Amino acid sequence: MPTTLFDKLWELHEVAVLGDRECLIYTDRIFLHERTGSIALRGLEQAGRDVRAPGRVFCIMDHIVDTRPGRGDVTLVPHGREFIEATRHSASRAGIHLFDVNDPRQGIVHVAAAEHGIVLPGMSAVCPDSHTCTLGALGALAWGIGSTEAEHALATSTLRVSRPRSMRVNLRGETAPDVTAKDIILHLIARFGSQSGRGYAVEFAGPAIRALAMDGRFTICNMAVEMGAFTGLIAPDERTIAYVSSTKCAPAGPLADLAAAHWRELRSDEGAGFDLELEVDCAEISPSVTWGTNPEQLAPISGVVPDPDAFADPRKALAAREALTYMDLSAGTALSSIRIDAAFIGSCTNNRLGDLRAAANYLRGKKIAPWVQALCVPGSSAVKRAAEAEGLDRIFRAAGFEWREAGCSLCFHAGGESFGGKRVISSTNRNFQGRQGPGARTHLGSPQTVAASACQGYIRAAET
Amino acid sequence: MNEKVFHRGIAAPLPRPNIDTDAIIPSREIRRVSKEGLGEALFAGWRYLAADSREPEPDFILNKARYRGASILLAGENFGCGSSREHAVWALKDFGVKAIFAPSFGGIFFNNCALNGILAIELEEAKIRRLTEWVELAPRRHQLEIDLEARQIRWREGEAMRFGIEPARRALLLEGLDSIAATLRKKSAISAFEEADGKRRPWVYQLPDV
Ligand code: SF4
Q: Between chains, do A144 and B184 touch, taking CB under 8 Å as contact?
């Protein structure tokens, strides 16, 4: 019987059926970070339980580590040092892998997991972090969990999971040349809603997805959780196999061929049945930014802030009204007339080498507007080194951007560095109230859009 | 009566959709590697006049005298979306929230609730609206009774409203199982899986030399 990619991944990891939809699912890789992983490790210690397979658990310092040059354990996040020290201590006690603050392998957990080949197509991976779904771009079954669930996974190498339903989003046609992966996923969230993926594993398919480089595919799957999805998936193809084969942990020797043959099977068969299939015409997509406080509140950069009264759904109208109050915007305002105070290129959504190249390409020979504060934070130490080897850091610096060490940085506000009270154009994934600091007003867009907006001082698309 | 099975309390409406876990507990409020004492930080961004103060914002619903001591939330759709931080659930629990009704929940938050003994229950929006209208008339007198065993909410003159809940989730809430211990009893199934899987996908079990 033809089966979906998701069904194949699920069956590969099914240890036991526990109930109606509930299964015991094997977790091949477990990731932790100092913000939510520390508490899971401590909980396990307190319960007197061991980590079952420590060699397959990776803990990375990414969330509250400082990203200013010359960093150590000291961070601007109040009590941040405590989290770093507690995590280091628990990780070494548990005997798991630790990528510490200045380890060359350090990076945002979802970026590092992929670039070192720790997660490969067909594997299952979990982390107490909602953006774990990023790794679905490899054709891996990866999803975010809570800290208590992380304890369960650490202690048993399994999780009790209620089987999600399967959805496929088919992207028809080609995107315009100025449309990026970020514009695509923002469009899907806006078009179908921030809850459209609830209870589903969502496979993204179609020529526009195939045409994306790996970096863009990670961007797409990263924001599947912003559709409310259990996870996002993209079937591995030759591009995926080439990418993972070049990583440090790629299977070698005879295992390499065995693994590649297995990976080539990981796709939805012709005629496989999904619980839901959605279609999008790529011609509808244009460079866009959010105007509200949820990623679904989106408009083309060439457009205007919508009128809340125009929403047919009264809940959406209410949400739009509240969002506009918070964002200090009014209906009908041209997006390109919105002046920004800050620009941020970073986060597990958009700070891989391809993203930095795209932004630098725009910035070459340009300067940011004098009133704008701009930051570029590479997604991992490896991305940073690669970018520096190409001279991208010099382009960012010459344009007026700060060039940082790798980490989550200002993607979220933990009490330290803050965009509080500022209007920010940001390549991140969440524009929630206060996400980047108290009162910060976040507009989400692609790295290219952030670069262009930083230079013009107003929200702008990068001309191609 | 088992507290897990039955709860009676004041309900507070929070109808705004998409209340995310950053709103339930801002990250800056997570100051220790601990699950304890987070109730004070619940909804800190809305509940206090400024980010660095503890001066109550009088307009925030949970600060209003008529909702003091509320233990049930009547929430909007997609409640608890966003960040996976379980601190959101620990903060709700520490504050005294026992049950949350919403048309839908963020997936990770929904699981976190069950694992911490909070009843997160999906209920059609129209039903939540009816409950809200009734509660708002006199929140302290118009308390809700939740009976998990019977899967009912009792309100207005003993009227009952049914709600659905997955059997596994209900069992977890009713019995408060230690799911790690339960899974560890399946050790042999897990080992057998690894044995077979190790032949099928040997590269997964080779410890990566990063
Ligand atoms: S970069 Fe942002 S979204 Fe990604 S893991 Fe870090 S805090 Fe979360």
A: no
